[in-house]
UniProtKB/TrEMBL annotation:
<dbReference type="GO" id="GO:0043546">
    <property type="term" value="F:molybdopterin cofactor binding"/>
</dbReference>
<dbReference type="InterPro" id="IPR006656">
    <property type="entry name" value="Mopterin_OxRdtase"/>
</dbReference>
<keyword id="KW-0408">Iron</keyword>
<dbReference type="Pfam" id="PF04879">
    <property type="entry name" value="Molybdop_Fe4S4"/>
</dbReference>
<feature type="domain" description="4Fe-4S Mo/W bis-MGD-type">
    <location>
        <begin position="13"/>
        <end position="72"/>
    </location>
</feature>
<dbReference type="GO" id="GO:0046872">
    <property type="term" value="F:metal ion binding"/>
</dbReference>
<dbReference type="GO" id="GO:0051536">
    <property type="term" value="F:iron-sulfur cluster binding"/>
</dbReference>
<protein>
    <submittedName>
        <fullName>Molybdopterin oxidoreductase</fullName>
    </submittedName>
</protein>
<dbReference type="InterPro" id="IPR050612">
    <property type="entry name" value="Prok_Mopterin_Oxidored"/>
</dbReference>
<keyword id="KW-0479">Metal-binding</keyword>
<dbReference type="Pfam" id="PF00384">
    <property type="entry name" value="Molybdopterin"/>
</dbReference>
<dbReference type="InterPro" id="IPR006963">
    <property type="entry name" value="Mopterin_OxRdtase_4Fe-4S_dom"/>
</dbReference>
<keyword id="KW-0500">Molybdenum</keyword>
<dbReference type="GO" id="GO:0016491">
    <property type="term" value="F:oxidoreductase activity"/>
</dbReference>
<comment type="similarity">
    <text>Belongs to the prokaryotic molybdopterin-containing oxidoreductase family.</text>
</comment>
<dbReference type="InterPro" id="IPR006655">
    <property type="entry name" value="Mopterin_OxRdtase_prok_CS"/>
</dbReference>
<dbReference type="Pfam" id="PF01568">
    <property type="entry name" value="Molydop_binding"/>
</dbReference>
Length: 739
């Protein structure tokens, strides 16, 4: 008997349906069993009826209750007593904390203006309410600095949008119909496991599955074939595939004529991108590129799953833009089970104004800070602060230091752990250590970031609050109901901002609405046809609702794209206007800009990527002991040849460093990573790492090409046995500049 059936027979057990809040494409529907005698949640499982969840949660969220009831869960507001970063706090009452925080913020606003307050958040919860819902009302009313939430996906998202017009994608269920599946820069079994059953179904019907990745991930092992590629070179592979497809007339002339613009110019562009040339850059043998292009163009339906892993490079936006041209070229969008999936989020055409209330800005236009530049944003040097301003496109003018605005004097962090996840960690920590910076952190746990707070405010988890979650890996809108009462004195983010708003003297009615009222109003305010028939009552009853889209949803079968031209833009006028090459091209990683890979390697550098560890979700779950034990310890995958050249043996502690910082990791020698690249499964907590640091010691805070996106995987490091003393990191002035 399955869990829900077993529990349904126990009179004291209540079963509540909710939605996983995590930053994961799958946005699962879950069920939680609560013992009504104690009010305690006793079990959690995947909802058996949800079409994507299909009764299964991942190994992390199966342990969700360990996290909810973790002995170190924050249950009372805490006020700092020791020096910044020492992690010493005493409990205080909510009234005292809220009153003091409001007074400090008022003081800062009076002296420096509201832009001196910076909210900092990301996707600790993907819920619309506990995410930016009440928080943006609060910060809009205040006129605080705005935050560009770029740390994950903006480069690829922009690249995709230039090409297709919106983040629409092959339906997840439709992957079962594909006969050729290219998993490109995605570790599906780790970061998107609910796609896999559809991939398996396709294979049972004869589909071939190929993974393109610098690492032989568990997904690459499970697939039919692994194509090993040098990081940051996927654009080259795509250009060479287009070269072959056009040269051998394998493209879909009818679809191209009907549904694309710029084909002739694309033909001229890819003429020089021969497989032989591509081999020297990508490391993929020319013959393999030929075969890949033929298989892709001649097997139907053909689906591509790309994820955000391949766009964490200086050319990440252009890479996604280039790959996104492939399905139109071969007409793959015609078929159910053909096309491409990066994100389904573009289908959720929400009107968010009723939720986030931009009208509360009342015409003010506060500066926007790019979140990946947190170290610069917290600097008291106006030149660095100016660099932290959000400039998503090349045509956006640089900000002069005298235009940078006030220094950041207050930082309010929620749903994020920047001391561990943000790049250029030393700069971030230096900022967080400022004694004159007033920092408030809303959290479940005393994270690396919370250690630097003046106040830590205990927040509820998804088991304890209401929300609506918008997925990016399927087309079902999800409702989360609370299963249990808040633990200790913890409060939902929404309630914390509600109380802060009242203490600040914000009297608008939107600061007194309850969570359910807000969500109901939000659902009822949606007018786009995709929400037709989706009511609050229906969400409460069922827990989810498929968008009002045809099933199957084959987004571009008719050849119409929501771009300015109405077609798939192989040539994009809008890109030209924004300062980009209007045609697909290769924008090399910053680490290859000044020298080719061979030179980089000769000088002793290695490329370094740090994709998701299987048992963590970013830094969430690192403190759940069972999951941390399963992950082992912070490690570095290194090719045996690269290890031998450095005298590194299996299991040795190594020093991984560059001019930004260093971290100590345990070497794991393996041919599962391409030669010349190292891989550090991430993201560990600093304080749960043996040397108190993580891989973001070495990652750069500079932007990628589009959307101000992050460049986590575009970095060079030196690796050496820890025992060997060495010279200090060299400066960027040498032949190869770090990026
Ligand atoms: N278990 C787990 N699941 C997660 C997360 C997690 O931390 N843990 N994180 C979540 C988040 S925030 C996100 S954004 C999503 C997606 O997060 P992504 O970062 O897209 O994660 P992956 O799907 O693991 O894909 C990354 C893969 O891309 C490969 N890669 C790195 N650089 C390149 C490159 O230049 N080219 C190619 N072809 N491949 C490259 C890596 O080796 C890795 O296998 O996953 C989410 N799901
Ligand atoms: N080196 C390296 N760095 C990376 C990446 C990488 O691949 N390599 N990946 C990047 C990517 S893709 C992303 S998305 C970012 C992720 O960065 P973050 O979004 O900061 O992700 P988490 O580390 O999971 O931190 C989320 C925090 O929010 C808290 N939280 C969760 N729910 C709630 C809530 O309801 N209320 C409150 N107040 N807090 C809550 C959790 O306890 C957790 O500490 O990291 C980026 N950093
Ligand atoms: S993290 Fe992803 S796979 Fe795991 S339960 Fe949540 S949505 Fe599902
Ligand atoms: Mo992410």
């Amino acid at each position: 008997m399955r869990k829900h059936e077993t529990y349904a027979q126990q009179p004291h057990i209540r079963i509540i349906t909710g939605a996983c809040p995590h930053d994961c494409p799958d946005t699962c529907a879950w069920q939680i069993a609560v013992d009504e005698r104690t009010g305690r949640a006793v079990d959690i499982w995947g909802h058996p009826d949800h079409p994507i969840t299909r009764g299964r949660l991942c190994g992390k969220v199966e342990r969700y209750l360990d996290r909810v009831y973790h002995p170190e869960r924050l249950t009372r507001p805490l006020k700092r007593v020791g020096p910044k970063g020492s992690g010493q706090f005493v409990p205080v009452s909510w009234d005292e904390a809220i009153a003091d925080i409001a007074a400090r913020l008022q003081q800062i606003i009076a002296e420096y203006g509201a832009e001196a307050v910076l909210p900092y958040s990301y996707a600790g919860t993907m819920g619309l309410l506990q995410g930016e819902g009440m928080a943006s009302r609060f910060f809009n009313r205040m006129g605080a600095s705005r935050l560009a939430r770029t740390i994950c996906a903006t480069a690829g998202f922009e690249g995709l949008t230039y090409t297709l017009g919106a983040a629409l994608a092959t339906d997840t269920e439709a992957f079962a119909k594909a006969r050729f599946i290219l998993i490109w820069g995605s570790n599906t079994l780790t970061s998107n496991m609910h796609l896999w059953p559809f991939v398996q179904e396709a294979r049972a019907n004869g589909a071939r599955v190929i993974v393109i990745d610098p690492a032989r991930t568990r997904t690459a092992r499970a697939a039919d074939e692994w194509i090993a590629i040098n990081p940051g070179t996927d654009g080259v592979l795509a250009l060479a595939m287009m070269h072959v497809i056009i040269r051998d007339a394998l493209y879909d002339a009818d679809y191209v004529a009907r549904a694309t613009v710029g084909f002739d110019r694309l033909v001229a562009r890819v003429r020089d991108w021969t497989p032989e040339r591509a081999e020297t850059i990508t490391g993929v043998p020319a013959a393999r590129i030929e075969r890949l292009a033929h298989e892709y163009a001649t097997t139907r339906p053909a689906a591509i799953r790309i994820n955000y892993g391949l766009q964490r490079h200086a050319g990440g936006g252009m890479t996604v833009r280039t790959i996104a041209c492939l399905p139109a070229l071969v007409g793959a969008w015609r078929d159910e089970g053909g096309g491409l999936q990066l994100s389904t989020s573009g289908a959720f055409r929400f009107n968010r104004n009723v939720l986030e209330r931009p009208d509360l800005l009342q015409g003010r236009e506060p500066r926007t800070i790019n979140m990946i530049r947190l170290g610069d944003a917290l600097s008291l040097d106006p030149a660095r602060l100016a660099q932290a301003h959000y400039r998503p496109r090349p045509v956006d003018p640089p900000v002069r230091p005298e235009e940078a605005g006030p220094p950041v004097k207050a930082l309010i962090v929620y749903n994020s752990n920047p001391a561990a996840v943000a790049p250029h960690q030393q700069a971030v920590l230096e900022g967080l250590r400022r004694e004159d910076l007033f920092t408030v952190v809303l959290e479940h746990f005393q994270t690396d970031t919370a250690d630097y707070a003046d106040y830590i405010l205990p927040a509820t988890t998804q088991a304890e609050h209401w929300d609506i979650v918008k997925p990016y890996g399927h087309y079902y809108l999800m409702l989360n109901r609370p299963a249990i009462a808040p633990l200790g004195e913890s409060l939902p983010n929404s309630e914390i901002f509600r109380r802060l708003a009242q203490a600040m003297g914000y009297t608008e009615a939107c600061f007194t609405q309850s969570d359910e009222e807000i969500l109901r109003e939000f659902v009822e305010a949606q007018t786009d046809p995709v929400f037709e028939g989706i009511t609050w009552e229906r969400l409460v009853r069922d827990g989810w609702a498929r968008l009002n889209l045809p099933q199957p949803f084959v987004p571009f079968a008719d050849g119409r794209f929501p771009t300015p031209s109405g077609k798939c833009e192989l040539y994009s006028e809008r890109m030209a206007e924004d300062g980009y090459d209007p045609l697909p091209t290769w924008t090399p990683p910053a680490t290859r800009r000044n020298a080719d890979a061979a030179t980089v390697w000769q000088q002793g550098w290695l490329f370094c990527i740090s994709p998701p560890a299987h048992s963590f979700l970013n830094t969430t779950f690192v403190n759940v002991e069972r999951l941390r034990r399963r992950e082992g310890e912070p490690s570095l995958w290194i090719h045996p040849d690269d290890a031998a050249a450095r005298g590194i043996r299996e299991g040795a502690l190594v020093r991984v460093w560059n001019e930004r910082g260093e971290v100590h990791l345990r070497a794991h020698l393996t041919e599962d990573i391409v030669h010349g690249t190292v891989l550090a499964p991430s993201i560990w907590w600093n304080k749960l790492s043996p040397d108190g640091r993580n891989i973001n010691q070495v990652t750069p805070a500079e932007e990628s090409d589009m959307g101000g996106g992050a460049r986590f995987y575009d970095v060079l490091v030196r690796v050496e046995p820890l025992a060997v003393a060495s010279e200090e990191p060299e400066s960027t002035q040498q032949a190869v500049s770090l990026a």
